[in-house]
Write a structure and sequence with these properties.
With 153 residues, the protein is mostly beta strands. It is built from no helices and 14 strands. A 4-stranded antiparallel sheet has the order 3-4-5-6, with no helix packed on it. A 4-stranded antiparallel sheet has the order 7-8-9-10, with no helix packed on it. The two termini are 27 Å apart.
């Protein structure tokens, strides 16, 4: 169950049932009344906040989903997984467009898009930030220098 609360009063505004494990990431759509959530049971759900219903469940990779990010247009979703991969999804259809993978498994704890939606970055437990071409799926840069895992971008 997912509770949407107003923090100052701590009252439940809406409850959305569906996830069976701890929710790991929540993301409000920038233009539509949608909420995207992920959980440790490897699922990603797209919710309609007006009807309080789950519009679709994106098929996970069998791994924990740690973080979500929407591109600036609100059309593409990036998800970071426990196995070190990043999946790019079409939010309307729910189709996985591509999966970005690194050589060594290192949990992806953070994902973010650049302002144009052309690049997606991932932050991992191996202390690195990787920058990917979202269209081609090609790794563009690996940024090193952090002394601890990268949890936010």
């Amino acid at each position: 169950m997912l509770d949407v609360t107003v923090s100052a009063r701590r009252c439940v505004v809406r409850s959305l049932g569906g996830h069976e494990a701890t929710v790991t990431s929540l993301l409000a759509h920038p233009h539509l009344p949608l909420l995207v959530s992920s959980a440790y049971e490897s699922s990603i759900r797209v919710w309609d906040l007006e009807t309080r219903s789950c519009l679709r469940t994106l098929a996970g990779r069998g791994n924990f989903v740690y973080h979500l990010a929407l591109d600036p247009a609100g059309r593409l979703l990036a998800s970071g997984f426990w196995d070190g991969s990043v999946s790019l999804w079409d939010l309307d259809s729910g189709a996985c467009l591509r999966t970005l993978e690194v050589e060594a498994m290192s949990e992806v704890r953070a994902v973010a898009w650049d302002w144009s939606g052309a690049l997606v970055a991932s932050g991992s437990d191996d202390n690195r930030v990787r920058v990917w071409d979202a269209t081609l799926g090609a790794l563009r840069h690996t940024l090193e220098g952090h002394s601890k895992p990268v949890y936010a971008l």
